[in-house]
Sequence to fold (112 residues):
Amino acid sequence: MSVLETNLIDGLAQVEKTGDIILLIVDHLPWEEPNHLQLLETKINTALNFVKSGEVFKKYPHERERVTNHEVKVIFQIALKYPPNQEADAFLKRCYNILKSVDIQLECRIKN
Fold:
């Protein structure tokens, strides 16, 4: 799966040590690709809806209360193939702040 499949979650996992829940977004596109930021925004919104709707707790039913009590974090992890350009960096910072306001952490990792 990838950022092109905007209606799907690319990966879902729980960190064994902390219990944190990670929703993975795989982004292999170069930043020059037309509509790249729109695709990424749609993909992030899909992940956000997955959490807000409670769908994530069908997979991890015992974590709902721990997430609510801030004992466990929900993390959106974006695996980027290419380092963000200036426009993408500004976009990701806005996303970080928006997600932080709803208690979701955003992490970006560059994977080659």
About this structure: The chain has a mean pLDDT of 94.
